[in-house]
Amino acid sequence: MSEVDLRRLVPRVLTGERGALDLLARACVRLALRVARAHRLGDADAWDVGQDTWIALAARIGTLREPARLPGWLVTTARRRALRVLAGRRREVLCARDLPDRADEAPTPEAVALNTERRRTFWRLAGALPRRHRLLLCLLADHPELTHTQLAAELGIAVGSVGPLRRRCFDRMRRLLVAEGLCG
């Protein structure tokens, strides 16, 4: 919707003219959708940005002093809301339950070869760790369900020492993997 249309439309909304609010809402959401899609948001997120932008405008429509500046305000508001959605994605962590079920798909030969090589390299590097760290890695790999109490009993250490031992083990392993160029 052009500035001229908005200049005429906002006063009509403010006087309560029938249908003017619907026209303004459509124009607002249409503009916000374009902005959201320019930020490469999917349909659901783009519609959320459009709706949030409209809600922000509806809350402020009575205080609007310069209708000609409305398109710029809408674009800025939609852009800020789209950027918030994108920032929220960086904090999202996918869980296995969020991934599609691929149990019926057989792994490709390349995937099998890569996994085999990764496993081989990991355990080769683990061989350079102190005995207690190797044992901890074996327990975690073979029995991920073990609690700290159970790990402590298997390792012959105090329960409160499991966390620090695990952290030191992982730090050493990470350094070895980085030195091999496998982790960064």
TrEMBL record:
Keywords: DNA-binding, Sigma factor, Transcription, Transcription regulation
Pfam families from the UniProt entry: Sigma70_r2
Entry annotated with the keyword DNA-binding: yes
InterPro entries in the cross-refs: RNA_pol_sigma-70-like, RNA_pol_sigma-70_dom, RNA_pol_sigma70_r2, RNA_pol_sigma_r2, RNA_pol_sigma_r3/r4-like, WH-like_DNA-bd_sf
Sequence ranges assigned to domain RNA polymerase sigma-70 region in this UniProt record: 25-91
Entry superkingdom: Bacteria
Sequence similarity: Belongs to the sigma-70 factor family. ECF subfamily.
PANTHER family xref list: RNA POLYMERASE ECF-TYPE SIGMA FACTO, RNA POLYMERASE SIGMA FACTOR HI_1459-RELATED
Stated name of the protein: RNA polymerase sigma factor (Sigma-70 family)
Species assigned in the record: Amycolatopsis magusensis
